[in-house]
């Protein structure tokens, strides 16, 4: 079986190998033939070491495919079923799940420490317990979420991470109010999904902030009312809010510097939503007086900040109704053999989402 492998953390290239085997099939597990997978910035962060992940590993966690085989004790899936890979499944029994905060369930994170693959040279892990840059993957049945047959594999793959994360940040975490002002810092696939969520909620002003011209242009197509470079953000804040700041600011980069900018761009009493996944040693500094005096809400948003299964269903419903543009997010398509080309597209900012077609 072919898979793209990172041998050591810190390397910037993947090697596509044909001697990889998906392992771990048994009771409660399923084997999936991956048909399409998106490249998410979190994959790059895991490769660089910003996000912790044992190596060697197969990146990829935004995938969709069909069930090849279902193990014993799996009653809701069968061979041929179309599924989206969920990298953060809910166990249903832990305290977070019982409180209704299924996105905070830690069961999925525990999978990251168990090898999903093997080669003649030894074990290989799957990023976030999945590893969708492979032709096949074996995961817990809870990681395979059925989707209707009318949802194409490439669309389903996007719902597996980026769309759910960005859309949920606007709809679940921030609960954007109609008529409000919004700024989105970082307009890749996740940021564009935030913009679409703010548009769906009726935000009056949606300012897209990104250093890449093509991404700013794309943001306008997806619902932003204005698009500016980071250096132009202070002027936009002055023009649109008379210097007060935006009602909602979304940080979709995962850096303390942009989070600080986002905080300063949020009005007093407004809401800063942290969507980007950053490093453990990158510290955001805020003084105690400003925290007290400005009364700004700081809301981290993990995987859309809500029930994942409900978020999937909502995204599909909105897509079917023509109110959510998912196909437009896919700006590039490459085969698995071209995975390093996809990495370059992500690093340069030329791609919103690159679909790797298996």
Description of the structure:
The protein is α/β, with parallel strands linked by helices and 358 residues long. 29% of the residues lie in helices and 26% in strands. The chain has helices spanning 41-48, 95-98, 107-110, 153-159, 162-173, 189-200, 213-221, 233-241, 256-265, 288-294, 308-320, 339-348; strands at 3-5, 15-17, 21-22, 29-38, 57-58, 62-70, 82-85, 117-119, 122-126, 136-140, 144-146, 181-185, 205-209, 226-228, 246-251, 266-274, 297-300, 330-335, 353-357. Strands 4, 6, 7, 10, 11, 18 and 19 form a 7-stranded mixed β-sheet that branches. It has a 6-stranded parallel β-sheet with strand order 14-13-12-15-16-17, sandwiched between helices. Strands 3-8-9-5 form a 4-stranded mixed β-sheet, with no helix packed on it. Helix 10 links the parallel strand 16 and strand 17 (297-300). Helix 5 (162-173) runs parallel beside helix 6 (189-200) and helix 5 (162-173) crosses helix 11 (308-320). It is globular. The N and C termini lie close together (12 Å).
Percent in helix: 25-40%
Secondary structure: number of strands: 19
Shape: globular
| Number of helical regions | 12
Overall pLDDT confidence: 96
Q: If you compute it from the alpha carbons, what radius of gyration comes out, rounded to the nearest whole angstrom?
A: 20 Å
Helical/strand content category: alpha/beta
Fraction of residues in β-strands: 25-35%
- Poorly predicted residue ranges: none
- Major sheet size, sense and barrel closure: 7 strands, mixed
Terminus-to-terminus distance = 12 Å
């Amino acid at each position: 079986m072919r898979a793209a492998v990172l041998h050591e953390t810190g390397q910037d290239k993947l090697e596509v190998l044909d001697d990889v085997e998906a392992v771990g099939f048994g009771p409660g597990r399923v084997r999936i033939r991956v048909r399409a997978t998106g490249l998410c910035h979190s994959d790059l962060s895991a490769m660089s070491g910003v996000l912790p992940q044992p190596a060697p590993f197969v990146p990829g966690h935004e995938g969709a495919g069909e069930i090849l085989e279902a193990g014993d004790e799996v009653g809701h899936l069968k061979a041929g079923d179309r599924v989206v890979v969920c990298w953060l499944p809910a166990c249903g029994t832990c305290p977070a799940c019982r409180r209704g905060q299924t996105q905070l369930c830690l069961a999925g994170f525990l999978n990251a420490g168990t090898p999903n693959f093997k080669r003649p040279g030894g074990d290989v892990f799957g990023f976030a317990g999945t590893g969708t840059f492979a032709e096949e993957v074996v995961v817990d049945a809870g990681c395979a979420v059925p989707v209707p047959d009318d949802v194409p594999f490439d669309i389903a793959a996007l719902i597996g991470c980026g769309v759910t994360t960005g859309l949920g940040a606007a709809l679940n975490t921030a609960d954007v109010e109609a008529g409000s002002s919004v700024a989105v810092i970082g307009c890749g696939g996740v940021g564009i999904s935030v913009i679409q969520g703010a548009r769906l909620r009726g935000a009056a002003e949606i300012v897209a902030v990104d250093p890449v011209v093509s991404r700013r242009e794309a943001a306008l197509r997806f619902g932003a009312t204005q698009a500016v470079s980071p250096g132009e953000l202070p002027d936009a804040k002055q023009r649109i809010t008379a210097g007060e700041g935006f009602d909602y600011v979304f940080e979709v980069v995962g850096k303390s510097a942009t989070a600080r900018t986002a905080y300063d761009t949020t009005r007093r009493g407004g809401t800063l939503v942290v969507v980007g996944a950053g490093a453990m040693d990158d510290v955001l500094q805020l003084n105690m007086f400003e925290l007290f005096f400005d009364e700004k809400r700081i809301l981290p948003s993990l995987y859309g900040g809500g029930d994942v299964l409900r978020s999937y269903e909502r995204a599909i419903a909105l897509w079917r109704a023509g109110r959510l543009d998912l196909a437009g997010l896919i700006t590039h398509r490459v085969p698995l053999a071209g995975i390093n080309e996809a990495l370059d597209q992500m690093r340069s900012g030329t791609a919103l989402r690159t679909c790797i077609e298996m």
